[in-house]
Amino acid sequence: MQVRYVNIKDIESISRLYKIAFDRSYLSVHYSIELLNKYFELLIHHNKYCYVAEFEGRTTGFLIGGFKTHEAVNEFLDKHRKKVFFYALLSPRILLTRLSKLLCSLLKKSPVSKESLRLFIIAVHPDFMNKGLGKQLVLRFEDDIKNDGFNSYGLFVRADNLNALEFYNKRGFICEFKSYNQYSYIKYIQN
Ligand SMILES: CC(C)(COP(=O)(O)OP(=O)(O)OC[C@H]1O[C@@H](n2cnc3c(N)ncnc32)[C@H](O)[C@@H]1OP(=O)(O)O)[C@@H](O)C(=O)NCCC(=O)NCCS
Prior knowledge:
This protein has a single domain, classed as Aminopeptidase (3-Layer(aba) Sandwich), CATH 3.40.630.30. 46% of the residues lie in helices and 25% in strands. The protein is built from six helices and seven strands. The strands form two sheets. The chain has a four-stranded antiparallel β-sheet, with helices on both faces. Strand 2 and strand 3 form a beta hairpin. The chain starts with a strand and ends with a strand. The protein binds coenzyme A. The site of coenzyme A has 20 residues, from strand 4, helix 5 and helix 6.
């Protein structure tokens, strides 16, 4: 299993893997491959710490992290708002969840994480889960940020994503706060 920096040719396989690894309660899983390619193009363009895992020429996992994940998502939404809205209309349950989240944030100011360096997405192909690949991707990310002089980072994880919660708990993350249906986690890296 090899973990390496992402390149532009990996985008399509990342989009395909994303659709397989995440369940259909995530709105972006419903996007077409073409739209997902645009999403990942922006995320990868704006963020330094992006990796894929490969096995026998097949993309088996990926991780996207950096300081500009939020900006990349906002740019994507600005450019493709109508298409995203179209997919939201096709998934009324997700739309409802999004609306109630929006309502909550209007009623109560959401806390902001103190960590600007983010691990934005990690995914492993279901055929390769629980074989240490997620751990390998996180270690590569942590090695690189450590070499760049950073010793902590944050991520958001949905409260109903029990597998990911278990994975992060085992990897030494601590909870910063819970807001609506997600936890903000922080990891302090030891030298
Ligand atoms: C979360 C995810 C990336 C973990 O990747 P993985 O390759 O299966 O995890 P690993 O095999 O490296 O596991 C590392 C450790 O976590 C544990 N772990 C992983 N998944 C687990 C699970 N479902 N339940 C309990 N423990 C789990 C492993 O036992 C292992 O423990 P160890 O270090 O003591 O040996 C993967 O399950 C995934 O892609 N999930 C779908 C996408 C997702 O939800 N991403 C996270 C939100 S952005």
